[in-house]
Request: fold
Amino acid sequence: MAVAALGDPVRRTLYELLRRSPGSMSRDELAGSAGIPRSTAAVQLERLVASGLLSTENRKLSGRSGPGSGRPARLYRTVLPEVAVSVPERAYDLAARLMAAAIEKSSADGTPVRDTLEQVAFEAGNELGSAAGRIDGMLAQTGYSPEPDGQGGYILGNCPFHRLAHRHRDVVCGLSAALLAGALSGCADELHQVSSDPDGPYCCARIARSPTLLGPAALEPKL
Reply:
């Protein structure tokens, strides 16, 4: 909802003005800075409040109180320190957390950093799979964009680590494979397995139906 609210250029301008401001701003200040009518600013600011991006307070700007001191002004300030969106969806923050954790663990116990990274990624995938309950849910939530492959498995329609994988393919694909294997374990999915798909258009892996379960009786997964 927060990202959708910033799709409007006027709301995005108002949000950026507040994000850069050291303090709260009034409707008049924001309208003047954005070069729009006060009434337009008021409507768009309230939409940002409803989206959870801004908070408000009512305060008299004169600093005086009592009769003749004027009405309190409605002031706005940002709530979220950062709002990010990418299309297609990426998960670079997840990769960064896993790599940092692997480096710390490798430095502490002396194990090879790549082995440690895959262990950390498996454990993280286990948690994500357990939380999602189903592998398709975990794939969708993490940005893999799963699509049924017609054989009871999933083609991964997006690589959430695309830019990293482009420059560091072996490391990142190993991380991703371990994450996916951990997710299958976390959601207790014995129907699928992680399979290499080096020629895939989007991701170097896919979620395949276990070989013993393929055949006419295989059920098509539902997204």
